[in-house]
Amino acid sequence: MSTLADFTATTLSGTEKDLSEYVGQVVLVVNTASKCGFTPQYAGLQDLYARLHERGLAVLGFPCDQFMHQEPGTADEIAEFCSVNYGVEFPMFAKIKVNGEDAHPLYQWLTGAHEGVEAGEIPWNFTKFLLDRDGRVIARFAPDVTPEDLAPEIEKALSATA
Question: In the prediction, which pLDDT does 161 show?
Answer without folding.
Answer: 65
